[in-house]
Amino acid sequence: MSRPPRTGGGVDLVDRALAAGPPVMLYQPVVDLTASARPVVGYEALARWPGLGDVTTAQLFAEGDRGGRLAELDWTCRTAALRGGLESGIDTDTALFVNVEPVASRLRPPEESRQIWRTAAERLTIVLELTERKILTEPSALLAAVDEARDTGWWIAVDDVGVNPDSLAMLEFIRPDMVKLDLTFVQRTMDAEAARTLRGVSAYCERTGALMLAEGIETEEQLERALAIGASLGQGYLFGRPAGLHPGTAPLRARRVSRIDAAPTPYQLISERRGYRIARKAVLRQLTDEIEAQAATLNDPPVVLCAVQSASRFGADVARRYSSFAVRSPMVVVFGVGMPRRPAEGTHGADIAPDDPLRDEWVLVVLGTHGAVALAAQELVAESERSVDDDRRFRYVMTQDRELVVAAGMSLLNRFVRAETGED
Fold first, then answer.
1. Domains along the chain?
2. Which of 122, 126, 235, 288 has the fewest Cβ atoms within 10 angstroms?
């Protein structure tokens, strides 16, 4: 992204934008591609700052990010988008798609924004759009924003999917109700990587009932391509340019993707569905070595989550191995008592409480777009009774059932979000 033309620093640019008042909001139609009349079922809110000349909203937000003003800009745009929705007279049959920066959810919004959001939650159907890039750069903030939105009753969409195919495995944990494909899927000839991405998105939508939305449809040929790849919703100049907001012509027909109610620990979750076995540490080490080797060679980089009881068990050799995973994986998180936030280069760490039952478990979860496996083991004796390390014995379960693997991963990621956000 090129730097915007400006005088002074990026903070000056943000100050100029905010001093000029709320942005001008335009709304681009979202249509139902499965109906012959292509009825409008919603609108995406798009902010414009005419007082900044040729500076785009994307450039302004990039400057806000660099200057620590991203949350302020985000709340300004969110508030303007919802105010426009409330003033337009649209009802709950017409969905309003609103872009959100997850980092803003960590900060207390202005009182005016809180009041408008409360009113909008009662009177509008709101779809929060989270960009795919935030999956990789701010995973804990994004997951926290998703939880907050679902608790409020809003819908979730992930935008620009396909820009970075490495993030596809995270869809299972975010569980969006709608997946918005990047416009390149309909505007360019599909290559092997795009086809692999589309296969992953299609599989997710088939498993969960999520809707696929194709962006950037400008011609009949591109519409034909959108239908061919399985999109049921569409957006682009063929259906309307960003403009004013009017009630839709048909309700949005969508179903919510179910949330995962994760058990207290991965072992407790999986052992309720699968019988356990008993093995010594050496056997489990061989099994985890094999799973880690598989994770390192998958075509589609997987999410890797590992619980090692305590930070003292995450030695230098293990750290190097997990750092190598992080080079290509969308997210690598290691859990343990006393675990630092960055236990190895490129990885995340989550410190768990000494009384957390996870402290007695050895867990490895690998979730890719087209592969999934989880191993969870629970130590048989208390720490005070442990003697020779290699003689340690565990009850363990292993599964390749994708639903169980995702649920086991969520059990861990809930702890990651709490550790990162400081929530209890």
1. 10-234 (3.20.20.450), 266-421 (3.30.870.10)
2. 122
